[in-house]
Amino acid sequence: MPKNQNLVTQKSGLSTNIILTIVVVVVAVVVIGGVLLFNRGGDGGGDTGGSQPAVAAEVLRKPDSHVLTEAPDGKLTVVEFVDFQCPVCQKYYSGFMRNIEDEYAGRITFITRNYPLEMHPLSQQAARAAEAAAFQGKYKEMYHALFDNWAQWAADGQQYASDEAKAKAQFEQYAQQIGLDVNRFKQDMVSPKVQAKIDQDVADGGAAGVGSTPTIFLNGRQFDPGNVQSYAEIGPKLREQLDQELAK
Question: What is the spatial distance between Cα 147 and Cα 48, in angstroms, rounded to a whole number?
Fold first, then answer.
């Protein structure tokens, strides 16, 4: 995320025109950067691309992809690429994705896939925790535990948490709470097969045009919330598009 920087004029000999030029450039960078962060940033809600062609189903869903809810008619498949440490992913989850999972159960097939970003120090470790839980049939439970307890392990004040040992202990606690064999969970977390699963998700995300998180696809087409001013407006937009697809 961009950091505010103070400009200090150290020499009184700078002309007024030069100072004004610097101010204009800085303001332009801040404004443009802010817009890009909300619409396209690393954790700013995903690139919108409603006019893009649909991504092939075999790219978005693999045989071992994690299905949170499944519709018998297979009419609408929703695929979300997430980074568990991404604050916007957590905002989506707590704001509407968790409710959508329940409200549309049986009507949509809802799949989540990994897309950990380098800017988030614990994102890979959290993804490994989710995948390790999946080997014991508890992906959904760990997915919820990671997002429900996000503030405990993912944030450190106004910064991203980076204490891997602390996060590991918390993930093991979640594993115990959801009924996993914790010793096996610890072994699977560091196994090559778990990392290979995450790497495949990232590769497929790249092939689908994912560049940030969260990024959501509805029947292969990237969800576009349109011109929204706040996160509170995104949930209704998504529900509207879900209902439109289901009404076809």
Answer: 23
- C-beta of residue 61 within 8 angstroms of C-beta of residue 93: no
Domains along the chain? 57-247 (3.40.30.10)
Alpha helices (runs of H) in 41-86, residue ranges in sequence order: 57-60
pTM of the model: 0.81
**Which tokens go with 188?**
């699977």
CA dihedral 74, 76, 77, 82 (to 10 degrees): -150
pLDDT of residue 161: 98
Give backbone dihedrals phi and psi of 183, rounded to 5 degrees, phi first.
-65, -45
- Residues with Cβ within 8 Å of 181's Cβ and at least 6 positions away in sequence, in order, are 136
Cβ 242 vs Cβ 218: under 8 Å: yes
User: Half-sphere exposure (CA, 13 Å, Cβ side) for 17?
Assistant: 0
Cα torsion at 211, 215, 217, 221 (round to 10°)?
A: -50
Distance (Å) of CA 4 to CA 7, 24, 27, 30, 218: 10, 15, 11, 9, 37
Rounded to the nearest 10°, the torsion over CA 207, 209, 214, 217 is -90
Kindly report, residue by residue over 21-67, the tens digit of the pLDDT: 333 333 333 333 333 333 334 565 444 444 578 999 999 999 999 99
Count Cβ atoms below 10 Å from residue 64 Cβ, excluding itself. 10
